[in-house]
Design brief:
It is built from ten helices and 30 strands. The protein has 584 residues and is an alpha+beta fold. Strands 21, 23, 24, 25, 26, 28 and 29 form a seven-stranded mixed beta sheet that branches. Strands 11, 12, 14, 15 and 16 form a five-stranded antiparallel beta sheet that branches. Helices cover 24% and strands 38% of the residues. The protein has four domains: 117 residues, Immunoglobulins (Immunoglobulin-like, Sandwich); 140 residues, Sandwich (Immunoglobulin-like), CATH 2.60.40; 112 residues, Immunoglobulin-like; 111 residues, Four Helix Bundle (Hemerythrin (Met), subunit A) (Up-down Bundle). This is BatD protein. Keywords: Membrane, Signal, Transmembrane, Transmembrane helix. It comes from Flavobacterium psychrotolerans.
Amino acid sequence: MKKYIFLFILSFQGLLAQVQFEAKVSKTTLGLNERLRIDFTMNDDGDNFSPPSFEGFRIVGGPSQQVSQSWINGRSSFSKSYSYFLLPTQKGSLLIKQASIEINGQIYKTNPIKINVTAAVEQPRDPNEAPQISVDDAIHLVAEISKGNPYVNEPITVVYKLYFSYNIGITNWRELNKPKYNDFWSQNIDIKQLVAEEGKYNGEKYRFVVLRKTVLYPQKSGKLEIEPLSLDIDVQVPTNRRNIFGQVQVVDDNKRVSAGSKTITVKPLPEAGKPQDFSGAVGRFNFTAVPSKTNLKNGESLDLKVAVSGTGNLKLFTLPKPVLPNSLEMYDPVHNEQVQTPLSGMNGQISDSYTIIPQFKGKYPIKPLSFTYFDLGSGRYKTITSPEIMINVLDGPSASENTVATNSGVSKMKVSAGEQFKFIKLETNLLNSKTTDFLGSTMFYILMFLPFSIIPIIVLLKKKKEAIDGDIHGNRIKMNNKLAKKYLSEAKNQINNKEPFYIALEKAMHNFLKAKLHIETSEMSKDKVQEILLSRKAKTETVQSFINLTENCELARYAPSSSVAIQQDYDKAISIISELEKQI
């Protein structure tokens, strides 16, 4: 009996060993412009097939499934395969990872396969199917830059145009590498629909489409590099063959193009004539400081609006702050931006509105405000000064009625002349007091025992306060969340409006950095922010999350997003700012 059981186990293992599942490729070395076929084959039917992720490749065909079964001399054979056609997206040694499938309750996996991808190679073609034109000469990606040597904070534009010949057709295109604008403030211009236009490239007529428009403001001087935009384009090219109707037949081809990196030489703003109060404004502006009213009654308030309008880097500088007498109480300003960014650069208005409340009656001057900017037209610094504002408080207490100054500098109560001598009554009328004695009354005992009854309450409140004070971690979290919501208050007000929300969110993140790291917006490059935060003992994951969220603000303004995604970004910003505040 044991012998039969042993033979049965051996035969069962033999059946399991017969199951085969493997991956086969058409070639292990190919050019960047060649396609690769990979087949996952098995000799038994299976379920739950899971292909690899094909990192470094793009699927251009498949999966296609083939099943075959035959009987030869009483023996049956079964074969099943899944086929893919892949196009490499990069050069180098790439690895196709394992695929898996379930057969008879067991999981089987293929072996990983290494593929070596070289530079593009020339592919032999059938003479009859050879393209009439070269794809390399028919497609060109160009980055047109409006100015190659601007000043710091002077706007320049980058327009990416795809030129293509009249003889070919473009069926699809994908971005391989997006352009990066390190050390630039950038704003993408929304293109609602791609429109083919006619133009010239190297003196020859082409069609072209504008793929991307970007406005850039360089934030530092020197040679700054714009990393290129790269595309993978599917095209249809005519051949020498014709169909039965006499029409030219076309073949599908693929072309990868790049706009090439561009170097911008940025000039620093001149030091000659630069005022000390210059805050970085570059362009052409108007400046005003206007109060809502100048005559006030006791208890009233006024609004002082400090505004700059015109064209230039409106989002990249700060407005001057008014200086007020001590008798005028001023609250933190409400900042407002009404700025558009067309291809010519920012234009519109920014303003700070201050609420001012007078404390005493009298006349109080607000000193003139000065705003300085660099005029690109004349190449000089210009200063605009607002007129002095006189605030007249008509009634209320006077500052001189409360105190009188003496030579010793000690303030004494002032006695009015009318109250120096008052008539003293020499006669008085006495009234009989109540006969009931307070000692021994109900109120007497209530007031006597009341302090003793309050003692337990005081003890409980003291213990609760000590527990709250001892919860350092909890108090820190509360403080951090409060600080985060303070910076994000404007973003929360715009949470139902996608584009204003992300603009306010990005500004809140920048304001947080300015407050905590003491750096200006012009210095906020990705590398520098990361370096400073890490030097302040911030965690790498938190820093990366902060940078990713900041970069995502610009993309999210133009990408479709739901209210749920906006709320998630808002909650994520609160969490990140709280974590950074706790860590640094």
